[in-house]
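Milestone 3.1: sequence recovery, worked example.
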């Protein structure tokens, strides 16, 4: 009898636990909207002008919401608080040029990758040959600009430790610092470097054809939310199948 009672108690506890466990996808459907955490400082993926969000991943978020039959609400965050905001339930998914990496996989769920890119530099027009290798940049007299909390900062700390690293809270301020001469080099990724090279003739991408690393972007989902992750991956597959991703890339100067 004791064994039976204990077994029944354990079974009922496990059953209650399973029932009580929230399912974020179900919650999104019930509430009628999905919340998207994004930094708003990484063109052309996520940009906030003070009133409106725009960019490739903003358009993807809107596409996801439409496919799911819900609205979308954007929540501005920072690179250093990206995972914390996810853990604190401030948003359902994080989007906006987020590099897939093992530390993020261990802290959350990561979607499949999209768009292969690599680390490169952004410099002023005409100075490419001065800063086209790690050795040339990794010197105390070279000022390197990075955004705090992202993979650019980690790259600089690892490979450019001898340089003078200048850290910025807002990633949008780094290209401006390059243009004004506040820093000599911005550590960035190929899509962002090429974007600034196109819109600003005073800036040039360095090593965009032969970047220092290779990675992919992805989206972050709270740990354990497998149904939401499966749904996001399914929608990403559908985007590729229908050519929606290429259309949105072209609309955001990524093609």
């Amino acid at each position: 009898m004791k064994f039976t009672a204990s077994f029944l108690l354990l079974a009922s506890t496990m059953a209650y636990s399973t029932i009580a466990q929230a399912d974020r996808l179900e919650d999104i459907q019930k509430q009628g909207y999905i919340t998207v955490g994004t930094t708003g400082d990484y063109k052309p993926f996520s940009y906030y002008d003070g009133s409106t969000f725009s960019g490739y991943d903003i358009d993807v978020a809107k596409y996801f919401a439409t496919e799911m039959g819900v609205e979308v609400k954007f929540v501005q965050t920072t690179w250093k608080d990206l995972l914390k905001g996810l853990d604190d339930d401030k948003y359902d998914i994080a989007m906006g040029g987020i590099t897939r990496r093992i530390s993020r996989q261990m802290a959350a769920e990561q979607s499949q990758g999209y768009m292969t890119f690599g680390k490169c530099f952004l410099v002023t027009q005409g100075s490419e040959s001065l800063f086209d290798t790690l050795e040339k940049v990794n010197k105390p007299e070279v000022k390197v600009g990075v955004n705090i909390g992202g993979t650019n900062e980690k790259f600089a700390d690892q490979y450019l430790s001898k340089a003078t690293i200048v850290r910025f809270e807002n990633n949008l301020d780094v290209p401006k610092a390059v243009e004004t001469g506040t820093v000599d080099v911005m550590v960035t990724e190929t899509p962002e470097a090429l974007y600034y090279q196109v819109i600003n003739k005073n800036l040039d991408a360095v090593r965009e054809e032969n970047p220092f690393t290779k990675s992919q972007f992805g989206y972050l989902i709270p740990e354990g939310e497998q149904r939401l992750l499966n749904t996001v991956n399914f929608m990403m597959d559908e985007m590729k199948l229908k050519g929606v991703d290429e259309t949105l890339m072209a609309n955001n100067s990524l093609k």
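The chain has two domains: 23-116+215-251, 119-206. The mean pLDDT is 92.
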